[in-house]
Amino acid sequence: MASDIRRAIDAVYRIESARLIAGLTRMVRDVGLAEDLAQDALVAALEQWPESGIPDNPGAWLMTTAKRRAIDLWRRNTRLERKHEELGRELEIQQKMAAMDLDAAIDDPVGDDLLRLMFICCHPVLSTEARVALTLRLLGGLTTEEIARAFLVPVPTIAQRVVRAKRTLAEARVPFEVPEKAELTVRLSSVLEVIYLVFNEGYAATGGDAWTRPELCEEALRLGRVLAGLLPKEPEVWGLVALMEIQASRLRARVGPSGEPILLLDQDRGRWDQLLIHRGLAALKRAEELSGALGPYALQAAIAACHARARTPAETDWARIVALYDALAQIAPSPVVELNRAVAVGMAFGPAAGLELVDALTSEPLLEGYHLLPSARGDLLTKLGRFDEARAEFERAALLTRNARERELLLGRAAACVR
């Protein structure tokens, strides 16, 4: 029974922690202190719920307990600034109201608070690694150990990133607010970038023994859907949701029975999740309706939609994909976009045309060490019957990747390069 209660408490906290920390941050204006208060409430739940039972509204109970803890802290510290004293009085009033109506305690402007928490977790003052760790910790409710395991880094490394991130936010006095319209686009791009980084690490793991980590994709999708609910008029939010939904639809088909990778054109499309495809196409339509000119995520979603709509690889509209990559290169130019465009050109207009473009990228400094460049070149060389060169390219790609499953795939492709 005790273990069942513990699991239930863990589940409740995972569900409620983001809203709890968001609401507390609005009140105390310190995300680190807010998380500490939330953790204190969790400890209280672990102590009391096994005897008293889980309350009808566990989220409200946690919020009320955390508020009381905040008030106690302020009362014990008489040297706090006047601002804190005023905030403490405000909390006392809110606490009294919560005592009369526990159900209302968690029903403050939760949506606004969650949105503010997203923006503070993904603030540009933090490094990309810190943004990812803090987002998963505070918004995803993942433990430090879970984040470390997902990204294959030591637990102390993640712990340090989270601690430093909270310290940096406090020292920079980053306001807990939704950015003004003039700053919103830049700040929102940071939030979208973090969510997509989490998704990509789940969709195509950069290291380790697994080709995919679906739990990271699920978490990123959850955050993306929450963000779309909070900012329903932002087309790029819907573009990102569409992209993730459509790509996530392939997860089951991306691995074989033993976990081996299966490339896009070799996948059993009958295993693609049609519900996720439907949701993705609906999100893409929403993005298109909100904006005449698609942004980078919506364009990538449109490319993914071309694959989703094709019942077989042969039916894929590669010419449209090339055109979409042309548009993407105009608004978000990068060597990786050019590489993907070259692959699409090879599919639409023949491997020789694709290889010419890939060869032009071999001297690109930003692609040095990028394993997908020799992998793409090897694929095109294979189609042209230049097997010795293709084998060398696949072997080079295998040396560059840090993912064990991908390395096996590339070495297998190298071995298959026979005259």
TrEMBL record:
<feature type="domain" description="RNA polymerase sigma-70 region 2">
    <location>
        <begin position="19"/>
        <end position="79"/>
    </location>
</feature>
<protein>
    <submittedName>
        <fullName>RNA polymerase sigma factor</fullName>
    </submittedName>
</protein>
<dbReference type="InterPro" id="IPR046531">
    <property type="entry name" value="DUF6596"/>
</dbReference>
<dbReference type="GO" id="GO:0006352">
    <property type="term" value="P:DNA-templated transcription initiation"/>
</dbReference>
<feature type="domain" description="DUF6596">
    <location>
        <begin position="187"/>
        <end position="287"/>
    </location>
</feature>
<dbReference type="InterPro" id="IPR013324">
    <property type="entry name" value="RNA_pol_sigma_r3/r4-like"/>
</dbReference>
<dbReference type="Pfam" id="PF08281">
    <property type="entry name" value="Sigma70_r4_2"/>
</dbReference>
<dbReference type="Pfam" id="PF04542">
    <property type="entry name" value="Sigma70_r2"/>
</dbReference>
<feature type="domain" description="RNA polymerase sigma factor 70 region 4 type 2">
    <location>
        <begin position="118"/>
        <end position="169"/>
    </location>
</feature>
<dbReference type="Pfam" id="PF20239">
    <property type="entry name" value="DUF6596"/>
</dbReference>
<dbReference type="InterPro" id="IPR013325">
    <property type="entry name" value="RNA_pol_sigma_r2"/>
</dbReference>
<dbReference type="GO" id="GO:0016987">
    <property type="term" value="F:sigma factor activity"/>
</dbReference>
<dbReference type="InterPro" id="IPR007627">
    <property type="entry name" value="RNA_pol_sigma70_r2"/>
</dbReference>
<dbReference type="GO" id="GO:0003677">
    <property type="term" value="F:DNA binding"/>
</dbReference>
<dbReference type="InterPro" id="IPR014284">
    <property type="entry name" value="RNA_pol_sigma-70_dom"/>
</dbReference>
<dbReference type="InterPro" id="IPR013249">
    <property type="entry name" value="RNA_pol_sigma70_r4_t2"/>
</dbReference>
<dbReference type="InterPro" id="IPR036388">
    <property type="entry name" value="WH-like_DNA-bd_sf"/>
</dbReference>
